[in-house]
Amino acid sequence: MEPEKKKSSSKTSSSKDKRPKDKDKDESKTHKLSLKGSSRLVAEFFQYSIHTILFQRGVYPAEDFTAVKKYGLNMLVSADDQVKAYIKKIMSQLDKWMVGGKISKLVIVITDKDTGEHVERWQFDQQQQQQENSSSASAATPLFAEKDKPEAEIQAEIAAIFRQITASVTFLPQLTGDCTFNVLVYADADSDVPVEWGDSDAKEIQNGERVQLRGFSTANHRVDTIVSYRLGD
């Protein structure tokens, strides 16, 4: 499995992190996120999303996963060395692109090994607040959280998404046969791309169904989730 990069024509401006070195005790109670902290939180959410989808959709055997505590939930992450190395390679680059404001979406595609048909597509749309337009934009369309939104509230929103991913087995068709997966990252065309990454088609689901799931927001980012799947025969 090789990381794949899908270029996007849209551009996202980045903002310099202006996180204060010291905070008063009463301010720290809300644990406000800087731009860099928000970027890392979103990237971490993407990482756990990959593991959770691989487990919940049975792409790999249940015995290949180990339990960890995250977002107040018992999360399952892959213990397979190959899978861990693949995800680590993706995340090391994703962290850089996130801080630079280069990412518009991350997609996890599950493919039938025998037929090569894409059977499921999990899309996480990511928007980053444009600092210079933040005041006017927030008044018109409140996509982003207030500046003083507590991190605990953000973590609760993320936990709700993972509960919904877990519950998705009630409406998603059961995957049959051996499956594999790919991760697509939609990045700006001017992004610095490692040599081992390559362009890819969108790997859309042909004649599939789409379901909008929950999202979450920080003062700097908004993430929305959509799952597309092939209808059963």
TrEMBL record:
HORMA domain ranges (all copies): 36-227
Region (Disordered): 1-33
Superkingdom per UniProt: Eukaryota
Cell division keyword on record: yes
Subcellular location: Nucleus
InterPro entries hit by this protein: HORMA_dom, HORMA_dom_sf, Mad2-like
BP-aspect Gene Ontology terms: cell division; meiosis I spindle assembly checkpoint signaling; mitotic spindle assembly checkpoint signaling
Keyword tags: Cell cycle, Cell division, Mitosis, Nucleus
Gene Ontology annotations for the cellular component aspect, listed alphabetically: chromatin; cytoplasm; kinetochore; mitotic checkpoint complex; mitotic spindle microtubule; mitotic spindle pole body; nuclear periphery; nucleoplasm
Family, as annotated: Belongs to the MAD2 family.
Name under which the protein is recorded: Predicted protein
Organism per entry: Hypocrea jecorina (strain QM6a)
